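Dear colleague,

Following up on yesterday's call, I've attached the two folding results inline so they're easy to grep. Please treat them as preliminary; we haven't cross-checked anything against experimental data yet. The first protein's sequence and structure tokens come first.
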Amino acid sequence: MLKRRAFIAVSGVSIAGAVTLGAGEALPSNPVTVKAMYGLIGKMIAVAGKRDELIRILLDGVSSMPGCLSYIVAKDPTDANAIWITEVWVDQASHKASLSLPSVKKAIAAGRPLIAGFGDQTIITPVGGHGLDLKKAGK
């Protein structure tokens, strides 16, 4: 049986901190005053033959999660059943709040039977990168 916390933490549907610095922008002079964002990177293993179906569930509705700056789902090229999920949130509270969204609850219920297990998972504190909107992050 899947642990609910593991599913939620890794799945990203239920699923901070990176921001893009534009050309010429510098990190804040006192980075300690910048509120840390929250990120997750995790590996999910789909039931054999169900990876694409699980990916569709993970990607459905991700654009409407307040506080989510980036949500990337990727196929593992070395394992036909593995999926890597990388998330960036403005803060941990935004990630936690996403778990109460109806669309996230629906995705969890739909995805749970398609998950065989989980691999590596880590919580990160992103500090920058291409493609993340500094203004949207409130930085």
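Below is the second protein, in the same order (sequence, then structure):
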Amino acid sequence: MNSIPEQGRSPERAGPTRPSVDLDEASRQLELAAHDVAVAMSCIALGDLDTAHTSVITARAAADAAEEVLRVSLGMAPSRIL
């Protein structure tokens, strides 16, 4: 008797797959964005507009990263950043 190990499903039968994404990363990015916004608000209150501006830029980058992680996990098209 020949024993052939099971090969699993063929790609034709496997159906669509989603990339494996760690949603904890989206959560982490949103927490970073919230922190950067809080820093920016404090800097504005203290009159340090240059540091506030930098914090707003990094908050936006973190929010964009969280959005991208969610888009990938949902199988959506990449966002078009303007």
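For the second protein, one point worth flagging: The radius of gyration is 21 Å.

Best wishes,
A.L.
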